[in-house]
Amino acid sequence: MTDFVAQEFSITDTQLENGLTIEASAGSGKTFSVAGIVAFQIATQPNLRISEILVTTFTRNAAAELRDRIRRQLVSLERALRENNIAEDDDIAQTLAKLDRMGCADRLDRAIREFDSATIATIHSVCSRVMAMAGLPVVGEGRTSSDIAQTVQFVVNAVMVTHAATPGAWGFTDPKKFAQRLEIAVTNALSSPRSQLLVAESTDETDDVNSVDQDLQTRRMVRECLTRINRITQSDPTFDDLLVRTANLLAQGGDEAVRHAFTSRFTIAIIDEAQDTDQLQWEIFRGVFQADETSRMLLAVGDPKQAIYRFRGADVEAYLAQRIPSKVRTLTRNWRSDARLIRALNTIFSGKEFGEGIEYPEVSARDGAPETSIGVFPSLAILGVGVQTNQNAIVKPTAWRVRELLAEILIDDKTAQEGHRLPHPREICVLVNSKANGRKIEKELRAMGIPAVSSGTESVMASVMASDMRRLFDAMAHPGDRSRLRLAAATVFIGEQLVTLGALTDDMLDVISQRVFEWASLVRRKGVNAWAFDIRRDTNIVERLVAGREGERQETDFTHIVELLHAATDGKGCAPDVLVNEMDRLEGLEDMNETVSRRVESDRDAVQIMTVHAAKGLEFPVVVVADLWKLTKSNASKIPIFHRPDADTDNQRHRAIDVGWINERPNSLGIALRDAEEFAEKKRLFYVAMTRAKHHVSLIHAAAENDKDLRVTSTLLEDIAEESDTSCIRVISYTTPPQAAPYAPRSQNKVKLGTAELTHSLRQTYQRLSFSGLTKYQRGQASSPIAPIDPTHGGQDDDDDIITIRSGYTDSSVDAGVPAMPMGRLPGGTYFGKVMHVVYELIDFSATDLEAEIAAVVDRVVVGALAEHREELIQGVLLSLRTPLGGIMGDTELSHISPSDRLAEMNFEMGLADVDAEVTVSEMAAVVEKCLRDAGREDDILLPYLIGVKETFKSPLLGLMNGSIDALLRVGTPGNQHYFITDYKTNRLDHDGVTTMIDGYSREALLEEMEHHDYPLQALIYGVAVYRHLRWTAPDIDADAAIAGMAYFFVRAMVGLDTPTHDGHRHGVFTWQAPPGLWSQLSDMLSRSAK
């Protein structure tokens, strides 16, 4: 037991300091506190910007939730302060109002406008940024467990072969068993790179190289495996590699420039879910925030009682080692549960430990919490099912209890006629530790006629739907393979029966083959989402998909997998074998990975069944906890991994892997420590399960067989009387089915429905805009500026609707006006424009043999009739890349720009103002006009266009703007680099009346074309997106000054050094320099609050 009593944490009263740890209990508002800390610090510190705050958490879902909660906290606080409409129970707003109401509101408003610069992400995302700053390879989705397992197997085999060939080496008694154990040890060492490799009681590896001791040589083999694997993953790092390399970069003696850039950016760091960190992550945090700093602070927020991810490498011991007792504050006020249920849980957990140094603090109910919401029904029922050693024995009692709860428990409800009502099935959650047990309970409930659904109990990739989709994609990828085609025929998508596959004739297979070929073509052209859309349009397939009791399950799995594949392919067309490979990757993820964890298949009124791990962070009105809660028996096949005191680090406990186990000589103390740690984690898992309920918990309690049958419930319930009958806790014998009425679906009050009368006009407050949508709306070509969402379209191209084919081009008698203009007379139109965009996107402008590079890309991309113009395309592109650009870009050529200085196809979605801010395109033009006049540019070439837009373009700008920038170019030398928003234009501009074709691309002609299609407006919108992007990704530069302006390339007229110039401006290239302060003013205007 610890000898200190932590103080209660308060967002407004607690003085934050470096090293402060906030320990929350379940339901105590941890996420609210993190959001509150950020908002309060932003509001009270005039010089603190939201870009200076770093918030990290454990999973991507948690990061997304935190990001949303923090932004909503900022918005609600700002609005309450500005309108002076502050609720009495809003302590944060009340405190800020007394300090400086309007000043705090202004600082919160600034944070909202700059919210895109906030870093709220997983630790792996943060590490990726550090690696990118250092110019090192960055992990994408990361290698899956399947990939890593294959690498480990390969390396272990190679190391064992090397050992066997070494003269004098001892031989393997059982090579297969040794290899299996070596693979397990190496895999665990990879997942926790700072683990010590233990032989007997020593972790000193100094003498391993020359030793003849078998265990020491085995440890040397483990180390050699790790070294080889690290070399293999050097250019394609795993997530664990990412942590190691980041820790090394930020450590003293690492990359000082990267360390300085990272440390100088952040003033406050908050580690959410700190109990799920590990030693490496703490090295990273402490590399950025030194323990003795006072001007910058690192805060940890977590609950060690909920540290349940040991199997994923989380190390609660690392958290405990960093915790400073005098700097611990607690959150013990529960905002979730009824007061009586909290007393019941206090009775069970008070005085208990959940691991060494992890104690349970008494928890209190929130002010105004109801004593109970379920009347005389006990808040906690412990249902004794006798001595049981098999999980199957608790399936039926669990189902009985659910049926009983549906028939007997009454929940307070002011809307009900009697003031209370029976629960809906959806208000009951059954928590399990075994997905197999979850499926059995679901089946038992359904047999009783009780609707039940599962989530988080298994991977969607283990489903029948995943198998069907994989077989179909496999057939798409191998169109000539009849055996694969027959397997695809038996899927839900084609509908043949397995028993009849052999009877399919060649003619029947030809029909199926044609359908599969059409689907494959659709996937190649438009992507997996387009294929799914086509599937859903086929009523026969849909009928098969949703048929039977598993119909909703099938539809949910189908949607889930399609979304994963769509995201993995960036919504673009791809070859079917890409989908097969991605499904293989997804199958390699663990079942509880949030990406593939199976979703609830229905939003209908049904009992929810999920694992305790999946339920962490959630809450339910009524919970049934169903597990034996027994410790898995120690066995020789399980490697001892445990923590041991290290005398070299003040007896700090370090994670150790027992290498002797590989040779079947395990450390007996290590086995005992491992079992103790696993039992402590099982207790923490029990704590998580028991604290999910708002009103009632039913615990299915199976007694232990004997003293050796160690159960969590035996130790935690030892103080509870065998027979108890109180309003808080009731112990009930539950060995026979209770008398309970059969479940009957809840009857709905049948009210005669009528047509509601709309008494006010509808007001749209949010739009998803695009540049093309805005311009079409302005010209009367669309009824709305909202960007259309086409489910069969894989991407977004602002030029699709504005590339035009003119009439009246110059005839063949008109001279080009330059020695060569290869693309001058090539066919125009949307298809040509799209193809050329792809060509320019894929080419490496700086290739040594540029012509060969262009030819390779053209041969890869250009097909059909356009391929007849192969030579003109190659020569035309070559000349365009070797054209000095002129204007503000001087003698720079596109061929001078390396891939690292060109961000191709920059897709973005940019937040705009709320509807009440009343921001319009007209106002945007007014801001640009003012900036130009302030800079003394009264004769600017775009000024007349901007005045026209200001007077006529009244379209509102609100919601979300999306688009795709052809290329963001970086030009200049380090320390003096500028960015240009650029676009490739294939518009053909020569026309009747020009003396030569090239004259159609003069600066005046380009200006006319730019204005006609509103390209300047496009560039201004894109510029704001780039400004926000740079502000977030490169905070050390002045993004406003760095973005020099726009450069639009009309590539037909870019014919190398022979391209004419006039007043320094090159024909075919339209450049424009942004006035000082333009981008920040536009960004502020586009994100401002309501007037």
TrEMBL record:
The EC number(s) this enzyme carries: 5.6.2.4
GO molecular function: 3'-5' DNA helicase activity; ATP binding; DNA binding; exodeoxyribonuclease V activity; metal ion binding
Keyword annotations of the record: ATP-binding, DNA damage, DNA repair, DNA-binding, Exonuclease, Helicase, Hydrolase, Isomerase, Magnesium, Metal-binding, Nuclease, Nucleotide-binding
Catalytic activity as recorded in UniProt: ATP + H2O = ADP + phosphate + H(+); Couples ATP hydrolysis with the unwinding of duplex DNA by translocating in the 3'-5' direction
Pfam families, A to Z: UvrD-helicase (PF00580), UvrD_C (PF13361)
GO biological process: recombinational repair
One Gene Ontology cellular component: cytosol
Ranges of residues in domain UvrD-like helicase C-terminal: 339-617
HAMAP family: RecB (MF_01485)
PANTHER family: RECBCD ENZYME SUBUNIT RECB (PTHR11070:SF23), UVRD / RECB / PCRA DNA HELICASE FAMILY MEMBER (PTHR11070)
Name the UniProt record assigns to this protein: DNA 3'-5' helicase
Organism of derivation: freshwater metagenome
Lineage: unclassified sequences, metagenomes, ecological metagenomes
